[in-house]
Amino acid sequence: MIEVKNVSKVYKMGKERVTALNNVSLKIDDGEFVAIVGPSGSGKSTLMHLVGGLDTPSTGSIYIDNKDISKLKDKEMSKYRNETIGFVFQAFNLENTQTALENVMMPLIFAGVSGKERKEKARRSLEMVGLGDKINHKPTEMSGGQRQRVSIARALVNEPQIIFADEPTGNLDSKNGELIMKLLNDLNSRGYTIIMVTHNMEEAKKSKRVIKIKDGQVQEVSKDEI
Fold first, then answer.
1. Is residue 73 part of a domain?
2. What range(s) does the ABC transporter domain occupy (predicted)?
3. Number of domains in the chain
């Protein structure tokens, strides 16, 4: 479903050129749970942002279901991000002045879903992550683990094919981290493709496949190697 072909990403920083990814090629099949690991600055998040449509490659192509998203225009790219993928971030990225239900409804507003249907879909999404009793709570009234589950519910609400999780347990204690990893594995068992960027090697081992990035290049590694 996902094919990255000969992708490089070069950033200009003043007079310098920094190569974040160098001629990367890889495939991720529909329904996989892939962990992307590597040291800080290795290119992990850059790769995720490119596949997620948040950035474009300097060279190369990125195919999602045989469509080259690197050639999409702004409106088409926005539609891709809204309908095909869901993002889960380390910092949760929730609006503290809004309830859990209102936070989860946000992608549906951009998708043009009507008010009554928005509420029902957001409610179902929160129930899916075990927060059906917290729909009227604001993020400031929740634990870190609960906030991350709201973030996951928001990522799920448009029924995407792919979930991108960028350091999803980075701001959580070990107990809540384990709960989030269990939830991601449960979602994967339901058919969602999960791509997780992490520094946590123990959590990487809970994925089905590990890709390591170092100095902008990728290599497949076994779980025994990390």
1. no
2. 2-226
3. 1
Residue 2 pairs with which residues in a beta bridge? 28, 64
Residue type, 36: I
pLDDT tens profile 57-67: 999 999 999 99
Q: pLDDT tens digit string along 173-218? A: 999 999 999 999 999 999 999 999 998 899 999 999 999 999 899 9
Range of the domain at 174: 30-54+82-225
Residues 181 and 33 sit within 8 Å (Cβ to Cβ): no
What is the token pair recorded at 4?
Answer: 């990255």
Task: Give the DSSP per-residue string, 55-93.
Answer: S--SEEEEEETTEEGGG--HHHHHHHHHHTEEEEETT--
- The CA distance from 24 to 21, in Å, is 7
Q: From CA 53, how far away is CA 74, in angstroms rounded?
A: 10
- Within 8 A by CB and 6+ apart from 171, the residues are 90, 91, 92, 144, 148
Where do the H-state alpha helices sit in 72-161?
A: 74-83, 100-110, 115-128, 144-156
Give the separation between CA 60 and CA 53, rounded to whole angstroms: 14
Q: To which residue do tokens 């309908």 refer?
A: 83
Query: Measured between alpha carbons, how far is 121 from 114 in angstroms, rounded to an integer?
Result: 10
CATH number for position 46:
3.40.50.300
